[in-house]
Every structure is written in C-alpha cells, then in structure tokens.
Amino acid sequence: MIPVAWQFVLRDYQKQRLISFLDPAADPLGAGYHIIQSKIAIGSGMLFGKGYLNGTQNALSFLPEQHTDFIFSVLAEEWGFIGAFILLCLFLVFIIWGLNIAYRCREPFGTIIAVGVTAMIFWQVSINIAMTMGLMPIVGVTLPFISYGGSSVITTMICVGLLLNISMRRFLAE
Prior knowledge:
Elements: H1 2-9, H2 12-22, H3 33-44, H4 56-59, H5 71-104, H6 108-132, H7 150-168
C-alpha cells in the first residue's frame, strides 16, 4: 500500500516533508534547512547553554520560526541540557497533576475531560520536542505555554481552566 499511497494519495509537499524527514541533508537549503538548523541549535547548547539571548542560531536568524515551532531549539541552545531537562520536568509535573485530577474525579464526564485535556497537552509537548530534535517530521505544532501564538495560548489556558474547575468540583454531595 505504501507505493500506491505515495503515488496517488500524497501530495507533492507531503512527499517533500517525508523525504526531508528521512534525509534532511538531501536538500539542506530547502526542505531540510529547518531541521538541520534546529539540531545545530540543540547541540550547540551543550550542558549549560550559551546564556539568555546569547544563542547564535537564534540571534543570527539561522533558525526559522524560532518563536513558535522551534522555541524548544532556542531554549535548548540558550539554557542547555539542564534547562531543557527542567522544562521537561515541569511538563511532566503538569501531566501528572492533570492525570491526578482525572483519577480523583468522581464524575465520569469530568474524568474524560481531564484525561483528554492532559493527553492533548502531552501530545503537543511530545510532538513539538520530537519534531525539533528530528525524530518526527515537521508539522507545525506549538509548545504549550512557551510558544508565541494567540490561539494556542488561549486554547491551552482554557484547558488549564477546565482542569482547575474539575479539580475544584471533584467532591460531589452524596
């Protein structure tokens, strides 16, 4: 089915994304440019990073879409492995908090919403970080709470509000 899908289902830009995902060096100035620069940024941060606003990939504009899709690359370059690890730990705490709210909720609908909201944020984080490290194709998913973007921030804050509301109302009158 893969050859049939490649020939008849996928459009040209989708084929180009898959080719650049599998071999970014095939088109280093075109489709592979984003991921190559992202990997350079993450790797150049090393353990402690270059310091706030001292990242070369960011300051010299080598990294496109640095404020939205590739914000993790900028963070990893400026704060290094330690800063990226701390950010991942904060996201892990948030995800555990959301699942804890779902576990303690006594109403099935609240549990479903809490699990759904937590899963949405988990997958956004996972996809964005895997995308910036070259483990997944570039798809344009923002990093929750960090990336610039009005609709993404508003949606994420609404989701946090839902979690807070479920957490507050988890005890029903018996």
